[in-house]
């Protein structure tokens, strides 16, 4: 039934923003066959303002990092919507999520942070949202953001 994912997003209080324009020589997503690869998405809010600038283990704890990764996943879904020509019901499966965490050298809870993205994707797509995942720590991320998330989806 068309509109199921849009209804689910509304139910959980998420309005997808327009995807951020690429900041360099890349595109927000690439579709090859039935796979969509999103570019890494950072912590832009709906107004286009960056949120969560700083490092996990210094400026932010796990809870804030979780929210940062969740915001990245909202932006991943916005890019995915473009790949699906506006119809997220075309998503058959989230295949893989890769999350990057801007962290201090002693921070080791990267998976707990990236759960923010994974939990959102599963909340939106149910079993079709369950995916393979990597969560890695980085010395820095673009624009100083706390998290960045990219994903691969299979679509109809």
Q: Which helices and strands occur, and which strands form pairs?
A:
Layout: H1 4-11, E1 29-32, E2 35-38, H2 62-83, E3 91-102, H3 110-125, E4 132-138, E5 147-155
Helix pairs in contact: 2-3
Structure explained in plain terms:
By secondary structure, the protein is α+β, with helices and mostly antiparallel strands. It has one domain: 2-Layer Sandwich (60s Ribosomal Protein L30, Chain: A), CATH 3.30.1330. The chain is 29% helix and 23% strand. It contains three helices and five strands, in the order αββαβαββ. It has helices spanning 4-11, 62-83, 110-125; strands spanning 29-32, 35-38, 91-102, 132-138, 147-155. The chain has a five-stranded mixed β-sheet with strand order 1-2-5-3-4, covered by helices on one side. Helix 2 (62-83) crosses helix 3 (110-125). It is globular and about 40 Å long. The chain starts with a helix and ends with a strand. The mean pLDDT is 96.
Which features would summarize this protein structure in a list?
29% helix, single chain, 5-stranded mixed β-sheet, globular, alpha+beta, 5 strands, 60s Ribosomal Protein L30, Chain: A, 156 residues
In short:
The protein has three helices and five strands.
Averaged pLDDT: 96
> How many separate structural domains?
1
Provide the spatial order of strands within the biggest beta sheet: 1-2-5-3-4
Low-confidence runs of at least 5 consecutive residues: none
* General shape: globular
Query: Helicity, in percent?
Result: 25-40%
Derived structural class = alpha+beta
Span between N and C termini? 14 Å
Order of helices and strands: HEEHEHEE
The CATH class name reads Alpha Beta
DSSP summary, beta strand count: 5
Radius of gyration: 15 Å
CATH fold description = 60s Ribosomal Protein L30, Chain: A
Percent strand: 15-25%
- Note the total helix count: 3
Please name the CATH architecture. Answer: 2-Layer Sandwich
């Amino acid at each position: 039934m068309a509109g199921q994912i849009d209804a689910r997003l509304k139910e959980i209080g998420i309005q997808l923003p327009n995807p951020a324009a690429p900041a360099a020589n890349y595109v927000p997503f690439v579709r090859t066959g039935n796979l969509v690869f999103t570019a890494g998405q950072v912590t832009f809010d709906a107004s286009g303002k960056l949120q969560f600038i700083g490092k996990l283990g210094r400026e932010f704890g796990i809870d804030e990092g979780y929210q940062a990764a969740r915001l990245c996943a909202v932006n991943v879904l916005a890019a995915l919507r473009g790949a699906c020509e506006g119809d997220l019901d075309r998503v058959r499966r989230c295949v893989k999520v890769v999350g990057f965490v801007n962290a201090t050298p002693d921070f080791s809870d990267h998976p707990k942070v990236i759960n923010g993205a994974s939990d959102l994707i599963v909340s939106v797509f149910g079993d079709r949202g369950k995916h393979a995942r990597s969560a890695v720590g980085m010395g820095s991320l673009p624009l100083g953001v706390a998290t960045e998330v990219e994903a691969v989806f299979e679509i109809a």
